[in-house]
Amino acid sequence: MAERTEPADWVRCAGCGALVYGKRWTRTLHVCPDCGHHGRLTAPERLEQLLDPGTAESIGPVPALHDPLGFVDSRPYAERLERARADTGLPEAVLCAAGTVEGQPCVAAVMDFRFLGGSLGCAVGALITHAARTSLERRVPLVLVTASGGARMQEGVLSLMQMAKTAQAMAELDEAGVLTVSIVTDPTYGGVAASFATLADVILAEPGARMGFAGPRVIEQTTGEKLPEGFQTAEFLLAHGMVDDVVPRVGLRPVLGRLLGLRAVTGPLPPGDGAAILRAADDLVGRDPWHSVRLARHPERPTTLDYVRRLVDDFQELHGDRLAEDCPAIVAGTGRLAGTPVVLIGHHKGGPDLGERRRRNFGMAQPSGYRKAARLMRLAAKLGLPVVTLIDTPGANPGPEAETGGQAAAIAENLRLMARLPVPIVAVLIGEGGSGGALALAVADRVLVCANGTYSVISPEGCAAILWKDPQAAPAAAASLRLHPGDLLSLGVVDGIVPEPPAGAHQDHAAAADLLEAAVTAALHELIPWDPDRLRADRRARFHRYGTDTGAAAADWSQP
Ligand SMILES: [Zn+2]
């Protein structure tokens, strides 16, 4: 095994070989203080680290020795099982308990790699399913900690069936709206990776933990090619959109506590500040539209992450589309906005630093960004959480990668998904609302625009180049496109305007954030008591009206 207790109370780190004093090793949760290597934990150690002290309640029947095939290799399987039991003191490769994490109740199923490599046999499948059913009965989240080499060969094809069985158990929790979280530890391979480990709503991975279906040795032997450094590690998986976050062991309890505490608020709620949303554009009358365009693009204008830092408590950013990558131009996660648990999704331009703006692709999403947003919206629907979107993008992505990645379909999918979403959606155009890239986050029950925001089918420069044949005509195009908040309000495309500090949001981020918070809270408090049918009917009617009776489409605020 990786770590071994030395004759005295010393432990040798499997990462760097350093000797760490035993008590310190315990204090650092078996993470090397020198190199950060995360040592393997037994299931009882993991439960002790994860759950609040004294809260673990053992659940799940002790499985009988199960040898369905009467399997024998160099030794009978039954003998190997008994040996594993004696060596580990565990009845099987997974240990289940109910308890709390940071005071939040959950059911935990924790795998132990020492027990026949954490292999997925019939008893493991039964115990995972039992944990999921307990979680379902008690309506508390399920936390899975995985460590496995894959299926248990000695149980033949019945072992394979455990993948389907546990996937079914996860589906039942999806249908019931119960949160599932998996914590991927090193190593997680084969049947476990291709079932419950990756079916969780949120997938966290410990630094350096490897996960995949086929192991690296199998891949190298099959292809004859050397795999790149870091292949299948947590960091690789994060970059490729497969996990939500890489969380060092010491951070797992706080992150879990945040996630497990997400609960839908149900109405009725106190009405928000009615004056927080302007329903008339008197202050903006006569404003030069080009002025709005310039302010909407101001590099010091607050970004989505600026607002998140100021307004969202316990924000947990979630990454990845679970397909290929994590788009840095769209930020998404869970948290509490003015006390209300929400899923927040927004374009992120990156702020004043040019390097960061480049890294964020100036807020122009890849298809994976829209897919990440869609994944988080489905999570919101499952958990009954409202969605708040902050829109700030020059437009869809003009690069070839976005096209090969299926940009058009990714945008289209979001439009359809949002039309059906059973939870409230509040969208705010905090800066530029450019074309389909903006609309992909804006099919909402309430659409607001900041006083210096814009919303347009194309950039004024693009429009000027095509129709005026002269990019210099951009200010004229901006006027003709009617992209300015006052015009958007009169067209009924937005329901209201979020006021900004007198000199613009870029001059006073704190004041801008307060104004945004008041407006979003007012909209959320109005919508949260609505049932899903009313939300969807109203949302569909809203978008159906556009173009048929322009000017009358804005929300009817007089209705309770
Ligand atoms: Zn080390």
UniProtKB/TrEMBL annotation:
Cofactor binding: number and manner: Binds 1 zinc ion per subunit.
Pfam families: ACCA, Zn_ribbon_ACC
Compartment(s): Cytoplasm
Ranges in coiled-coil conformation: none
Cofactor(s) the protein needs: Zn(2+)
Zinc finger boundaries on the chain: C4-type: 13-35
Enzyme Commission number(s) of this protein: 2.1.3.15
Quaternary data: Acetyl-CoA carboxylase is a heterohexamer composed of biotin carboxyl carrier protein (AccB), biotin carboxylase (AccC) and two subunits each of ACCase subunit alpha (AccA) and ACCase subunit beta (AccD). Acetyl-CoA carboxylase is a heterotetramer composed of biotin carboxyl carrier protein (AccB), biotin carboxylase (AccC) and two subunits of ACCase subunit beta/alpha.
Recorded family membership: In the N-terminal section; belongs to the AccD/PCCB family. Belongs to the AccD/PCCB family.
Protein name in the entry: Multifunctional fusion protein
Organism of provenance: Kitasatospora cineracea
Gene that encodes the chain: accA
